[in-house]
Specification:
The chain is mostly helical. The protein has one domain. The chain has 3 helices and no strands. The longest helix is centred in the last third of the chain and has 32 residues. The radius of gyration is 17 Å and the shape is elongated.
Length: about 100
Amino acid sequence: MIAWLLTLGGVAVMACCAVAAAAVGGVLDRLHLLSVTTSVGFPLTALGLIAQRGFSEASAMVVLITALVLLSAPVMSAATARLTAQEAGVVEDDSPP
């Protein structure tokens, strides 16, 4: 039962963020919604899958993928925001990061 609640909670967070991303217009607003998805929704779903299946090779793979997403998502968001700021002229192209 707890596994289903975790999975459903994660899917609900990601679905709400997807609907909100379709409603907002700016790139930076969508990046904020993406950070909620990758830091809350995705790990909740992964925890639910691990709790449902027990620890196995598949669960180890889910843990690995979740760790990679949690480590790479902030970097990708920062790079996307920087590129958006450079294209908008807010930050110069040759300025240090």
